[in-house]
Amino acid sequence: MRPGRRLPDRLARRLVRLYTGLVLYGASLALMVRADLGLGPWDVFHQGVSGHTGLTIGTVVIITGAAVLLLWIPLRERPGLGTVSNVVVVGLAMDATLALLPEPGALAVRAPLLVGAVVLNGAATGLYITARFGSGPRDGLMTGLHRVTGRSVRLVRTGIEVVALATGFLLGGTVGAGTVLYALAIGPLSQFFLRVFGAPPSPPGGRRPGRFGRQRGGRTGRRAGRRAGRGPGRRVGGPPAEAPAASHTASMTAPAPRAPRPDHPFFDHPAPLAFAHRGGAAPGAENTHGAFARAVELGYRYLETDVHATADGKLVAFHDATLDRVTDGSGAIASLPWAQVRRVRVGGGEPVPLFADLLRAFPRARWNIDVKADAALAPLLDVLDRADAWDRVCLGAFDESRVARARRLAGPRLATSLGTRGVLGLRLRSYRLPGAVGRGALCAQVPVRHGGIPVADRAFVRHAHRRGLQVHVWTVNDPERMRALLDLGVDGIMTDHIETLRTVLAERGAWV
């Protein structure tokens, strides 16, 4: 991206997302009021206060939000545009919707109205949070109390909700089936819509590596002090500040502090790490001996590949489940014997390689491996054990359970990365919202953005580093984008254009 070219458009899209989400959020609360089958905990409180004061429920929402925002001062929370907008817009949208929507009488109308309201609330949550203008006042109260008291987010959130619900019930707010439905459904719905609006999709056409949301195991790399010329370790905890998305303008500011080097030999190399994605897929002969040899000759120490198992258990370095896209053969690898797979040619040239042969051919290379199928896991662990190559591998997959199983079988000798839920939790934490990150990961491997929403931005990188996690970004082929990400402080870049990445790192004195 050229410096500043799309900044106004990007900001405009984020603003539209923010205010659309807040308006829909207020509308969803009004729909729940009209359904009259029970409200969420805070709205039970709002309705109870409204009944005793004569104020509209939307006005109570605004006043309550402003009062909660005042509590941020002693908690040292910092509001953003989204925080202030949340206080005002949700209440106004709620009153406006109630004024336009008549009261339905029949249960046959109110029940689906309730369900639709809860779903809309989840979608609105995903919209306004992924706009990245700061959390709402109630969420900030939760995160602030969590930080100050040291209590878990779950306990703090539950305590706040119980107090609001009990107070609202005593004041006459409506508690019912809708309250239970909201409590059970809003978490999964919010998570789903956060993925829809803010997390990367599955790679289309097999052209991107399976790297978002990998769950990886091993020991955490939270080491204080200096390590091999690295800066001092950082204390885990504390919310990061909001920051702009990755762009070339990031070079105007200081990069995010580097993460302490993870405590695993795979990472025993000065960051940023340069990964040759599929050996450098730009020329077309991906995942072949020749592609990897070319990358090694250029000086690459980190190679990225994918593995599948043939019908007779041979582990091959290959991205797709079938041979059709890049070879002169066809059919699913899992259904073909090695004797047949070895005869096909990638791009009409080289054969499909066995991963064990690649390990032997490049004894100094480190391998970032995407396990593409359950059937490939046992053969991979067997290959690593026979070659005693645990120090040279970092493993991941789209399927979290696959990586979790690898971690259980191999233990801390195998480096792994965050899973899907962990990356989503890390993204939420970077927004100052609660999210489960989990333990045992050594790095997070993510795309730059999805659907116009940044994933690898300054806030994400800072929060990952505060947790001792490296951030590796895929698949980056544009030199300007490479420079912008390096300015943000990312710890690794995966690329198809291996000459380009080497040039960018060399010009910064970072090619080692």
Description:
The protein has 17 helices and 13 strands. It is α/β, with parallel strands linked by helices. Strands 1, 2, 3, 6, 7, 8, 9, 12 and 13 form a nine-stranded mixed β-sheet that branches. The radius of gyration is 25 Å and the shape is elongated. The relative contact order is 0.13.
H and E order: HHHHHHHHEHEEHEEHEHEHEHEEEHEHEH
Low-confidence stretches: 1-5, 199-254
Q: Distance N terminus to C terminus?
A: 26 Å
What portion of the residues fall into strands of 2 or more residues?
Answer: 5-15%
Number of helices: 17
Shape, please?
elongated
How much helix, percentage-wise, in residues? 40-55%
Evaluate the radius of gyration.
Answer: 25 Å
Number of strand elements: 13
Task: Give keywords.
512 residues, alpha/beta, nine-stranded mixed beta sheet, two-stranded antiparallel ribbon, 13 strands, elongated
Q: What is shown here, in short?
A:
The protein is α/β, with parallel strands linked by helices and 512 residues long. Helix content is 47%, strand content 10%. α1 packs antiparallel against α5, α2 runs parallel beside α7 and α14 crosses α15.
